[in-house]
Amino acid sequence: MKQLNKITLGLLTGLSLALPLSGFAQKKASLTSKTNSANAIDAIREADLKHDLFALAGDHFRGREGGTLDELKASAWIAEQMRAIGAQPAGDDGTYFQFFNIQHLRITKTSQLSIGSHKLTHGQDAFVLAPSPATVNAPLVFVGTGTPAELAKVDIKGKAVAILFSGTPPADLSFRRYMTMTMRDKSAELVKAGAVAVVYVSDARAQDLFVHWSTGYERGRYDLPGGPNTKVPQQAPTVWLPATDLAWVQQAGQQFTANINVENSLYPSVNIVAKVPGTDAKLKNEYVLFSTHQDHDGVRKAIDGDSIWNGADDNATGSAGTLAIMRAFVKKPSRRSALFVYHGAEERGLIGSRYYSATPTVPREAIVAVLNAEMIGRNAPDSAALLGSQRPHRNSADLVNLAMAANQAGPKFKLDTLWDKPTHPEGWYFRSDHLPYARLGIPSICYTTLLHKDYHTPKDEPERINIAKLANVTRWIYLTGWTVANRDQRPTPDKDFKLER
């Protein structure tokens, strides 16, 4: 831990920091004069948001990948902005930081893989789906799309089975999740029937995912130390190939060989925590938690010549918005204290929020609500969504009603309700940092402007963000939090809250 603090101290010392910009050219959100005079919403300025967005999502921080020095550098920058704004440190040991370790399980670079004369490199032209050690040397048989009729013609016992991916997901499942589940379940069936390895070749739809999503398999699995994803799976290898390999994979008489090794190590990540103390002698011991995450995907394989996956919308928008809300609370503190938590390693599986919710730096029972900002700067300028606003995801009708009232007092977004339904194929409610708090019974909601075509690609650049919309969502979050932080009673949890999974 001492070594981690030295790293961070050096980063802070060496960083060149810019002061917040002033000026505000765009029209503010429509507010009543009474509401406007009661808060510091004027402190939320588009110029500041744009400055912070471009700083965090610029190439300097190389995509802020969780568990890397790039994430730590970006976190140090955020902490310095907190200090400059005037928010107090609320992390460990009087700092803005709460360090934690990520356990990382991955396939080593010394692992070898080949089919016939084709040598394959995991993470480049082939992906092994699970980091499981294996040694295989077996004939390869191609079984088409793997229908029962096709499998009945081939003896697969003791062989590696090559299969062309095919299928259509049900309405309540995205193609990505469907493909992942199908590969997993079909591979298990084939291995149970005697196969020693499974090789999937992409069809047209799976090929798009191979280009944009396969790098996650190169990284391996992450979790908090001792978590379920840190256990080394014991299973036959499943390999995923691009569609361009189909012609030669079908050739008869080839041998499949694999020598797969696995390594297990710890990486540092960090939550960044600040507070603005409340003004009420009693209520200042309670906290409204403004949540976001600072990490993204880092440097990965190049797409159209760009290898830095900057994550401007995901989630430099939420990070910039949270700094803007902080400025408003510093300008005019509320009765309750405002707590600001930037969660590290969200993209690794909500690891930072899972860690902070389990080991908060304030009493957990003192957290009255969580307002989470996740991707708040794209899509139609007049629309947004509030996750946790309807059953079974709603855990506080009281908090949701306050958020709805704040929307009407502020930006008046048309709210998309489809993405919060349990039948939505993306399962979006379960993929951001409000979730660990909601599971603990803390009233929690998530503000988002939803997915877009540049999601988790190098094209998620700051130039593509609608700054005016970002400002309006930020004001909406602020107005909700301002109300929660000033009224006498804390938001009431729903007594019958129970998630579908």
Automatic annotation (TrEMBL):
<dbReference type="GO" id="GO:0004177">
    <property type="term" value="F:aminopeptidase activity"/>
</dbReference>
<dbReference type="InterPro" id="IPR045175">
    <property type="entry name" value="M28_fam"/>
</dbReference>
<feature type="signal peptide">
    <location>
        <begin position="1"/>
        <end position="25"/>
    </location>
</feature>
<keyword id="KW-0031">Aminopeptidase</keyword>
<keyword id="KW-0378">Hydrolase</keyword>
<dbReference type="InterPro" id="IPR007484">
    <property type="entry name" value="Peptidase_M28"/>
</dbReference>
<keyword id="KW-0645">Protease</keyword>
<feature type="domain" description="Peptidase M28">
    <location>
        <begin position="271"/>
        <end position="477"/>
    </location>
</feature>
<keyword id="KW-0732">Signal</keyword>
<dbReference type="Pfam" id="PF04389">
    <property type="entry name" value="Peptidase_M28"/>
</dbReference>
<dbReference type="InterPro" id="IPR046450">
    <property type="entry name" value="PA_dom_sf"/>
</dbReference>
<protein>
    <submittedName>
        <fullName>Aminopeptidase</fullName>
    </submittedName>
</protein>
